[in-house]
Specification:
Strand order of the largest sheet: 1-9-6-2-5-3-4
Number of domains: 1
Radius of gyration: 17 Å
Largest sheet: 7 strands, mixed
Strand content: 15-25%
Distance between the termini: 41 Å
Number of strands: 9
Number of helices: 6
Length: about 250
């Protein structure tokens, strides 16, 4: 990974500005947006969550600290959207059609959608994420999006941590019972009353003077953290509601 792209230059286009869509696409977006919103709103309130931290000094069911930079897999968008609704978390989403309907759905739950990705609008999006973090918000990356490969982390959070001085962490949401779509990310739609275990890694801050070799190492650490929390959550989600993983009350 080259360290030169870490410098985030001013963008010509707003990082939160969406692309232009055809009339047919606008109609489909309206349908998908409201269907997604209603599905999350109806199923989400039935889910049984518990939050577990690898850092044992942090109490069970502690929410994310602000500011912070968090990474998670694309397949967890549904349960994550309900879990962290109304907290003003900034989320990077693609300028693609798929990214647009995700953006519009999560905005209904008071997330801030920052449009752009590694393949399109990356500089604008990182600028927008930087602005949100510097204002004290938490930021989140669907780190293997927008189109994979699945479970392979991209370097955006490492770059953002370096330029903001804000630590990064990884999390995963496992579900005890879900419909798994036949998409590249095996997107999960939780079944009503499913258990959801969130596992969060310790925070790591990337130094402002990190060189190319160090940036590569921090990227590898992020990938390893994502792998660990995914494995742990999947292996322990059935235990949500136990003494070790008590249900979250919000």
């Amino acid at each position: 990974m080259s360290s030169s792209p870490v410098s985030i230059e001013p963008a010509r286009q707003s990082a939160t500005e969406s692309r232009t869509f055809t009339l047919r696409e606008k109609f489909l977006l309206w349908i998908i947006c409201w269907a997604g919103y209603l599905a999350i709103a109806l199923i989400g309130r039935t889910l049984r969550y518990s939050i577990s931290w690898e850092d044992e000094s942090i109490p069970v069911n502690t929410l994310f600290a602000k500011p912070g930079i968090y990474s998670f897999w694309h397949r967890c968008v549904f349960p994550a959207a309900w879990m962290w609704k109304k907290l003003g978390i900034a989320v990077m989403v693609s300028r693609s059609f798929d990214g647009e309907y995700i953006a519009r759905v999560i905005e209904k739950f008071a997330f801030v959608a920052v449009r752009g990705s590694s393949s399109r609008g990356g500089a604008e999006a990182l600028l927008g994420m930087k602005a949100q973090v510097e204002q004290g918000a938490a930021a989140a990356f669907t780190i293997d999006g927008p189109r994979g490969p699945k479970y392979v982390a991209k370097p955006g959070p490492v770059r953002l941590s370096k330029v903001t001085g804000v630590p990064m962490a990884a999390f995963y949401v496992a579900l005890s019972d879900a419909w798994v779509l036949r998409t590249w990310d095996e997107f999960m739609i939780p079944k009503p009353f499913a258990k959801a275990l969130v596992r969060v890694s310790p925070k790591v801050q990337v130094p402002a003077d990190a060189d190319e070799t160090q940036m590569t190492d921090y990227h590898a650490q992020l990938q390893a953290a994502l792998d660990r929390v995914t494995k742990f959550a999947e292996e322990n989600v059935a235990r949500v509601g136990s003494k070790e993983f008590p249900e979250l009350r919000r």
